[in-house]
Give the backbone structure.
Amino acid sequence: MADTVSIKPGPALAAATKAGIEPRGAKPRRTLSGRNIMLYGTLAVAALYYLLPLYVMVVTSLKGMPEIRLGNIFSPPLEVTFEPWAKAWATACTGLNCDGLSRGFWNSVRITVPSTLISILVASVNGYALANWKFKGADLFFTILIVGAFIPYQVMIYPIVIVLREMGIYGTLTGLIIVHTIFGMPILTLLFRNYFSSLPEELFKAARIDGAGFWQIYFRIMLPMSLPIFVVAMILQITGIWNDFLFGVVFTRPEYYPMTVQLNNIVNSVQGVKEYNVNMAATLLTGAVPLFVYFVSGRLFVRGIAAGAVKG
Amino acid sequence: MQKSVSIKDLSLSFGAVNVLENLNLDIGEGEFLVLLGSSGCGKSTLLNCIAGLLEPTGGQIFIKNKNVTWEEPKDRGIGMVFQSYALYPQMTVEKNLSFGLQVAKMPKPEIDKRVARAAEILQIGPLLKRKPSELSGGQRQRVAIGRALVRDVDVFLFDEPLSNLDAKLRSELRVEIKRLHQSLKNTMIYVTHDQIEALTLADRIAIMKSGVIQQLADPNTIYNAPKNMFVAGFIGSPSMNFLRGEIVEKGGKPVVVTNGVDFALDGYAAGEALQAGRKVVLGVRPEHVKVNEDIPGADHHQATVDIEEPMGADNLLWLKHAGHTMSVRVAGARRFKPGTAVKLSFDMGLASLFDAATEERI
């Protein structure tokens, strides 16, 4: 047989290698090299660091109070109970209200959905106009908008309270939605402007030659090309607004408190026994929405962030 | 000739930078005009002004005798083809073609008719249902031309339409654009930095530099009688040989003396008097120098072959001639070894003479 001939690598093999015959099979790897141990060891430690608290939370939320009092916070629940979750959602008390987090959840939904939609709609049109319809003073307008992003919130809180009071919407959901929309404007406008600027300018010119106007170009040319950046904006806004505590507590009344404020009030209540299991369940419930958003749209998120970097 | 596009005193500045200044240009009905120049000369800016995509700082633009200076692009009767094709990526070829007509609220049967006609002319019928990403570069550019075609415009504007294509496709599409112009007989304004495209396509070429039209003439005139040294050097590859010298009276006749050799100006049709002592630049194209040929009455010069560049059909020689380098084009079959002594003869009827100070043609 031909291939048994070259037991000893001779000139024939050298010639074959020169002729471009590649070595076949997987590249041999040393799995336990010092580099790999360092790499995976570090990753494992980092993963543990983040996972351990989550594990404790989940485990604790599934235990009854007597079991928690035993003090073994790392041990899995002996008797799994969903009662703390039910209580956190429906019956935990904050002040006089004893309807749990559910009220806060629906308040947060009523705040997040309109704030996200309005801010993204307005900011995307802003960004589109700034990128493609350069008007006189566009650059100045943009600079002012961006400077707005760097002014600390704390400076603006009291003036905004006064403005909202004068408008008669202080303490209402409408007021809070307006505040969220305005505060999202600088970063979102920047995001959209840069994205639209990265699209080929000739497309915009071609559409103008074709006779399309401001809105036709926006809806029929720009929007269909911009799904990734809309997903990015959505994630930023949903997580940002959902996780907001400061604006929620400052600009609304107790019956409109968002979920984060509600959570704080449940966890930090000073009366009675600390119900760790209920607190853990409440925290997990509050964090569920941003987590869900990340998992569902994570892939699009990465694509959108990278979209501006490479011209396609 | 009926005027199709007319530009009067057009100026445009971005901030303190004047890109165009008091530019005047008349383009005839059905004419193929090429705006030629290197990048940054203002040729694309001028085209964008005609299209209505840039607002001029001053001056006026007329299309079909209608003042369109402040009209929207869609109302100017123009179609435009871009270098990057600029096809709408999310739409099929058919949608790309019909988008402008839909925007104009044209009835569906009429849209279909026009799309079908454009597809037939450009032979893109089988591609109508595809997305731009599924097309090759040449096909994309055809669709882009089709988008101008369906709108049934008076004036076609091309902004370096072939620059993104490879050499072979470029020459194919060049022929197709010429054929399109011959059958449609529309006015076409074509921006390019490629002199071959300009020479092959144009009825007239406008050579631009720093926002000013240097010469506006048919390709033949541009090539044979360039108005100044910029035009002379820009057109032709390799460039025209420029020999600096001085006019001297010899035997009652004007002669250019450069580095000690004489060029009699008998055959040169000068536009003005050739007084002795004037500093001049003599321009000779590489293809207008004869090597080792006896031409009665012509000046003969000695030279040595320095480098030979065979290019197939042609053979390009770089010669040492009276203290300067000169390029000469001969037939590809004629080969010369470096170091060979050759005899050059010049046909002054094909040469150009420029004033050394103004760089203008004499």
